[in-house]
Amino acid sequence: MDAAKPSLKASASESLQSELLTSFAPTSWSGPIILGALLGYVALCSLLRFSRINSLRSKLGFHDRASLSRMTNQDAFQVVQNIARFEFPLFYDLAVRLALFETYAVQNVAHVLYGGSDLANRKKAPKRYADTEAVYVCFANFPPTSPVLHKAVARTNFLHAPYIKSGKIKQEDLLYVLYASFAEPVRFLNIYEYRKLTDMEVASLSTLWKYVADMMDIDYRTVLGKNEWTDGLEFFEDMTRFGGDYEDKYLRPTPEIQKLGHVLMEMLLDSYPKIASPLGYPAACVLMGPRLRRAFGFPEPGLAITVLTYSLLLVRKLIVRYLCLPRLAPSIYLSDPDEQTGRIKSYHYMKEPFYVPPTFWQRWNPEAIITWLSGGLLPGDGGPSMKSEGFLFEDLGPDKVVGKGVEETKGFEAIVKTKAFAGCPYKSSEN
Q: In this protein, which residues make up the domain named ER-bound oxygenase mpaB/mpaB'/Rubber oxygenase catalytic (predicted)?
């Protein structure tokens, strides 16, 4: 009897194992179910992925080229908000960074920045870069009639005024900075994102930067020979021809350009773990393209890293297109002004957290932790110079003008307000 008990127990155990294996073993119908679920999820992702842009197109009524002639500045702002906050926040931000790189690589702009800006100083460059980024985000973050946008443009006009007056900055230089600011995002997103931009989106990007340029009082006629366009696409096409000619003339290597390029590259790489530098440096060179690389004096990337970079970008494109649901919440880079202090807080930084509040999430979100592990600072670190309480517009600019020009900027702001409007800027519209 006692000898039989282990045998019975062993038999029961084997029976239980057999039942479990049978329960979890693949069946003839489990494969089709899994495949069907996967295909259903892919179809759901595709359906929802395009729902926001289709809804926006229907809402605004931009179904063909002719309809773009009635696009208003407010319409353009709304479409760009969708691009920057919902559709492509990561790569739109990266494209704007590359656009800034491009403007630093042309001779006239580089000469001014090298001599009169803090960007050539490795210790001061992070703050100056953060200031420039803050202004650029304001351009895309606040509508055309917003007082915040007017203050951002006015501060920009104040900083540019001495150089324009002295002839160091010409109208064609300002126009090229405008061109790069919308043309590089169009190029970059069309190549690397999960879909190409629609005509509505291209027209909106060019229209947004056109109304910023109008507030900056840029003289189109002097450079382009005209100051009226049928729609944002015609403006984009004319600016693209101008931008190509300008780059042929001025996008050439000089010691000043190469110094700026190396400072900016160091800033970019310092915001990531050092272990990533051997791949990050050549990958950044790949994304710049040959002309920008030559101007900055960066080496040509090898075939292996070029193939790897493009392969990873292709994999990302396919994953986002077919396996990722669209964003439900917008990506926010700047706060609204504080009602009492008027200060604006930033929620994004490279290595030094200028203007970033030291909240729990800002200090310990994944991006902040990666920055910290790579040697960067957490929001709240770095002392008063980080201005974690946020910025006022007089805080922006090189050290020599920080806190200065308040009254002069108010004068520029009054002029900006006379040029700001939410309506249609194109000649075929009925204003």
A: 150-301
CB 356 within 8 A of CB 386: yes
CA distances from 353 to 130, 231, 285, 389 (A): 9, 40, 25, 11
pLDDT digits (tens, 9 = 90+) for 49-107: 999 999 999 999 999 999 999 999 999 999 999 999 999 999 999 999 889 888 889 88
- Annotated domain spans of the chain: 72-334+405-419, 349-390
Give the separation between CA 336 and CA 246, rounded to whole angstroms: 37
Residues forming a β-bridge with 346: 334
pLDDT digits (tens, 9 = 90+) for 95-109: 998 898 888 898 888
Q: 53 is written with which tokens?
A: 């842009």
C-alpha 198/C-alpha 207 separation (Å) is 14
In angstroms, the CA 156 to CA 150 distance is 10
pTM of the model: 0.88
Read off the DSSP letter of residue 276.
Answer: G
Report helix angle 232-250 to 199-215, nearest 10: 70
CA-atom Rg of the chain in angstroms: 26
Report the C-alpha gap between 331 and 317 in whole angstroms.
Answer: 19
Contact 388, 381 (CB under 8 A): no
CA distance 421 to 418: 8
CA distance 103 to 114: 12
For every residue of 387-416, DSSP letters joined together read -TT-B-GGG-S-GGGTT--HHHHHHHHHHH
